[in-house]
Design goal:
- The chain is of the alpha+beta class and 127 residues long.
């Protein structure tokens, strides 16, 4: 942290995991009414991340980042280190998928997925 970071008075936002997308933080902290409002506010340049205007709605926010919105500062904090992003599927997942027989595939296709409500814990913000 720099001296400039120490001068900022900010509300602490506890994260259970990182990274988290910027618009989700605005939405689940109740700073805006909906995800659409969060995305619009970001696109219009009303949100600063680490004192820089941010227009990327899905900007990955990490522990230590400071978000400025509507005249208030919010400092992100997470006990865990950032989760690595696995871009290329491993060979093990290809092997395990190949072992599934056709009966299991038919059963899997017949079940309809149940949509889950996104909550604070689902995106990694502590209550």
């Amino acid at each position: 942290m720099t001296d400039a970071d120490n001068d900022i008075t900010a509300q602490l936002v506890e994260l259970t995991r990182q990274p988290i997308e910027l618009y989700k933080i605005l939405k689940f902290e109740g700073l805006v009414g909906s995800g659409g409002e969060a995305k619009a506010a970001i696109a219009e340049g009303h949100v600063l991340v680490n004192e820089v205007v941010q227009t990327q709605k899905r900007k990955k926010i990490l522990s230590g980042d400071v978000i400025q919105f509507d005249g208030n500062n919010y400092r992100m904090h997470c006990e865990q280190s950032a989760e690595p992003v696995d871009v290329v599927p491993s060979t093990e997942s290809k092997v395990s998928t190949a072992k599934i027989d056709t009966a299991d595939k038919i059963k899997a296709k017949s079940k309809k997925p149940v949509a889950k409500k996104a909550g604070r814990k689902a995106i990694g913000i502590k209550s």
